[in-house]
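Rotation project, supervised by the postdoc (A.L.). Task for the rotation student: set up a whole-complex structure prediction and record inputs and outputs verbatim in this book. Inputs entered:
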Amino acid sequence: MLDEVRTAKSVDQPCAIRDVLDRIGDQWSLLVLATLAPGVRRFSQLEREIGDISKQMLSKTLRRLEQDGFVAREVHAEVPPRVEYRLTALGCSFLEPMRELIRWAEANQAAIQAARRGAEAR
Amino acid sequence: MLDEVRTAKSVDQPCAIRDVLDRIGDQWSLLVLATLAPGVRRFSQLEREIGDISKQMLSKTLRRLEQDGFVAREVHAEVPPRVEYRLTALGCSFLEPMRELIRWAEANQAAIQAARRGAEAR
DNA sequence: GCGATCTGGTCTATGTTCGAGACCGATGAC
DNA sequence: GTCATCGGTCTCGAACATAGACCAGATCGC
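Outputs recorded:
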């Protein structure tokens, strides 16, 4: 399977994981998805909960996630405006394998930090 | 568990998955790891197999992966120089949950592309 | 001897992306 | 009148990525 990660350049069908990671593998996408996991959120709510994301990146990230079908955006014509974001079925299903990765990250965080400390000591 | 992704900003211990994704979630790291999965590779071999990575980014990516303990680097004092890279145990174990994600990506690629086409049609 | 070639990088110039923060328009609270 | 709320967009400088030139040191063909 990993072969497909490597050999996709010559194939018509672009490599799935490269494609997926190009989108969600950035600084913010995963964080936004995780923040949406518990339920519906408004724009400024996401902004506050994530904390260190700029409006611009939040906006851009949400739009990309929406385009890729991970989140749904619902605008209520009110003043002040109310815009709600929620995970789609695709978005939810994505979080399943992601949870595995998070579990791995938590289990191996210490090892990584140890390696990092060892590297800088060297 | 996903809560920890969101609430880590206030915690002393940095959020594991944010930390991990900051490192391997970039354009190239996963690709390098996948290319190293079958076994030992030399620098220029990685360059050729990946194809569209610049030497600079390959160099930088490998150094970071080495610092984090995902790959091991072995220099042979020969001329021309020979430098070999291989996955460490940590690197191998990381590929396990990653495989899940790749599987998901392959299974849902069509859905994502459909969403994307739908979005641009709109 | 003389140049070309191989290797694993680094350096530089250029282009792309990112974050901080100003700004917007309509409305309600004071 | 004035300020805050909301979901963004715009602009600016800074950070980062990319392509490609360049390097040393030995070996090869001639």
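Student's summary: Helices of chain B lie at 2-7, 16-24, 29-36, 43-50, 55-67, 89-121.
Supervisor addendum: Residues 78 and 84 of chain B are 12 Å apart (CA to CA).
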